[in-house]
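#lab-general

N.A. 3:47 PM
ok so I finally got the sequence cleaned up, no stray characters, all 699 residues accounted for. can someone with queue access submit it? mine expired

B.Y. 3:52 PM
send it over

N.A. 3:53 PM
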Amino acid sequence: MRKILFITLLILISGKIAAQVPVQNQFSQFGSSASGMDGNLYDRNGNPIDTTAVIDASTIPIGLSSWTIDERFGIITEVPVDTLLYNFQNTNDTGGPTGHYTYLGNLGSPRISHVFFERKDPSQLFFTDPYDFTVRTPQDVVYTNTKSPFSNLTYYKQGGGEYGEERFKAYFAVNANKRLGFGFNIDYTYGRGKYQHQSTALFNGNLFAYYRGDKYNMHFSFINDNLKVAENGGITDDRYITKPEQIGDGQKLDASEIPVNFKSIWNHNTGYHGFLTHRYNLGFYRDNPDKNDTINTEIFVPVTSFIHTLKVDMNRRKYISQDETKNQSYFENNFLSPDNTDITKQLIVKNTLGLSLLEGFNKWAKAGLTAFVSHEYRRFTMTDTIADNPGQRIPTDYVENVVSVGGQLIKEQGKTLHYNVTGEVALLGEDIGQFQIEGTGDLNFRLFNDTVRLEANAYIKNLNPVFYYRHFHSKHYWWDQDLSKIMRTRIEGKLSIDHWKTQLRAGVENITNYTYLDNTSVKYTATTEEKETVTYKNDLAVRQHSGNIQILSASLRQDFKWGILHLDNEITYQKSSNQNVLPLPDLSLYHNLYLRFGLAKKVLKVELGADVRYFTKYYAPDYAPAIGQFYLQNPETRYKVGGYPLVNAYLNLHLKRTRIFLNMYNLIQGDMGGGYFTAPHYPLNPRSLKFGLSWNFFD
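B.Y. 4:20 PM
back already:
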């Protein structure tokens, strides 16, 4: 940790010395989300932000702007500034800023949202999907244009010594001229774990560069992931948390003393991700309508664009299990001998070519129109059986190719109506017949001197299950099977009234051939003269539910303000038509009561309050360490998790370019029955004090 801090500081210092290049901003003056965008964090208007790098409006230098890009066409989305001192204390919470995630308790541990409409589709990079708390994709990379070198340092700390947790983030951006810029982002998370053999060491770093000229535009990023996670299989008996008087000698144990199932199992993911999107624009020059800009007398107006995007992903997942005695007693199957290494590798290369007719300039397309074709090459390397010698194992490659075509119709100009419809179909290869059509739109109008925004999104998808649902070979689980395509249809609407601070969202989805990981643990009964003992050996399989499953979801966000007193609320209701296959909590609640005021002539901004997260009891998904994924609970031993209010008290301070928080986590530990779990057998961390600091530099 100290080495990373030292190296980062050296890079920042040397970068500032070498790159003092003044730049004239060519973009609109937006604020920066400079330490990296997390798609799971939103401001109160639903805009994605990274609140660890919030810059007060009065401290934003003229000429600083930031944006992200989409992975398919490289379309730019400017990152909005969040000028509020809001929720900084929750930016390092693995459970999410409003507690929507089921996770294993420790900082940076695997997680899955228990709000279904927030879940992402499984990706071909299957093993890193549960680590989206720290893992970044190209569309999460934040690019910055700045007149002077910009950097952000953020540090989180909880406890110390053997059981503490730390997270360090650094962001640096600089321009070579007004069109060319580059920088880097570092995110290192180290959660030692309050419970035995639970540590997480997660590194994510990226380098980025861009060129935004009149006719040529380019964005490049390179991302490295290194995720080391110790797996303890959960505590051996939940009563150590819920009813300590009933187990052992009746004495309540410290978290570090509670027995766990494993002590010699690790998952290690290493990933390298390269991304390049560039385009050449045809168009014309016209007089600059901005009379205040005396430098650029003409601006270039693109009419047609030729687009190329290249995305390369390499990942290696290594499963390490050194306790062979425990393997034999805990798992039903042990396909690999102790000297075999459980490794799977992935290489995915995707090229996309597109032709775009921009909105408003073509008589054939008044809206923007884009056509594209893509080719994806996939190679998966797994352990396989040597023919005629099933006891011998060798690495085997599985190669897939997919050719797809598609189009996009988009309208972004104007203030009233906007829409974006994209469709794609696979014509050749492994996913032939796969298609998806997705559309979003919004309508904005005035009502009672306020702006009302109606938004809608819908899709229909016919998807081939990702590779590891169809094939997987490992030490304890092994399958090869043909699966039907998954049909998903969703429609969702959203109403926003900014003046009332109201957001109402509702939607419904139907899924056919829902594909999931099922718990198929095997029951064993041992009979002695004294008693009969029932045990289960762990096993797992991929299942498809051939019928239909419907999910209904509705969410209300409503904030209130009385002077310096604020009360923010979020209520999510959802219902699954099949709780055995797709279990979901009926209600998820978040409430935040706080005081916001200024001191020292309002130079020092203060938030003082407490928030609570709560979800109703349901059969929450269990976690399988041997594959690093969430799956259903054993139907014969399952039990409901939830019904526990997680209360945190906090103090936020914001002084110019510096933000600080203190947070007392799990304030009422043990006072509500003690069942502080979000996943079966994985308790949350006990009561603890957390600290965070974020500091922006503009020179």
